[in-house]
Design brief:
Elements lengths: L2 E2 H7 L5 H9 L3 E3 L2 E2 L6 E2 L6 E3 L2 E2 L7 E6 L28 E2 L8 E7 L2 H8 L7 E8 L4 H9 L2 E2 L2 E2 L4 E8 L2 E8 L6 H8 L4 E9 L2 E2 L8 E3 L2 H7 L14
The structure holds uracil (URA).
The site of uracil (URA) has 8 residues, from helix 5.
């Protein structure tokens, strides 16, 4: 995500914003090797190499959080309707983080937040097929045929979804709890798949990214993820080295 250079420099501890503006005007700051002298210039701190007098400015410390998102929050960074946003739940986090993928306003559960654009890309890129697992409580009692339709893929927006892994966890009077694992991220995908088979969602919760489980984290709470835990997201298919990450 692009931000004004003076803001990035200030956050990296190079200088105050005012001082950073002077450095820019003096032609001492370069982005990817090109000197920048406009005060309005922007860069993506996660992707660009920013230098002061030719020396790279220390990149912002990477941070990886796992939040148990409660229902009633949006995962965008601002909301025109003024609803609460997930980053309101973070206190004492200096870095500007963004959610990796979305969860609907009404959906709860595991949400990774980070300032690492590369990691977010790998988690969201369909080529890495990172599984996301959901617990869905649905209306009624889906038959085996209907569950098989989910397993075979459901046509949404004219395209068939990838086969889902589905397990019935509990059947109660009027409702069924199912565990569903998919690796795509179409808008409201699980809700729409279940609506298509005639069993609309009552509640939906994401319980895991790959083999990284939400566990007992209370709703509204978050914790930092370790390198070992991040590896679990990719279930062994790790797309890049984790050299720079803390253990
Ligand atoms: N599928 C949905 O329908 N909603 C979510 O929030 C996530 C996946």
């Amino acid at each position: 995500m692009e931000e004004r250079l003076q803001k990035i420099l200030a956050r990296a501890g190079v200088a105050s914003r005012r001082k950073a503006e002077e450095l820019i005007l003096q032609g001492r700051i370069a982005v990817d090797g090109k000197v920048v002298t406009e005060l309005g210039a922007k860069a993506d701190p996660a992707a660009a190499t920013i230098t002061l007098d030719g020396r790279p400015v220390a990149a912002e410390e990477k941070i990886y959080l796992l939040l148990n998102k409660p229902a009633g929050y949006v995962t965008t960074l601002s909301d025109p309707q003024g609803r609460p946003i997930v980053t309101d739940l973070l206190t004492g986090i200096r870095q500007r983080v963004f959610p990796v993928g979305r969860l609907d306003y009404d959906t709860e559960g595991a949400l990774i937040l980070t300032n690492d654009g590369q990691l977010a890309h790998f988690i969201l890129h369909p080529g890495y097929e990172v599984n996301k697992t959901y617990f869905a409580v649905v209306k009624g009692s889906p038959s085996k045929d209907k569950i098989d339709r989910l397993r075979e893929g459901i046509v949404l927006d004219g395209r068939r979804t990838w086969p889902a892994r589905v397990r019935v966890v509990a059947r109660e009077k009027g409702a069924t709890t199912m565990e569903i694992t998919i690796h795509e991220g179409k808008k409201r995908q699980v809700r729409r798949m279940l609506a298509e088979i005639g069993h609309p969602v009552i509640t939906l919760k994401r319980t895991a990214y790959g083999n990284l489980e939400l566990g007992a984290l209370p709703p509204g709470s978050y914790r930092r993820l370790t390198k070992k835990e991040l590896k679990k997201v990719f279930s062994g298919k790790i797309p890049f080295t984790f050299k720079k990450l803390p253990d």
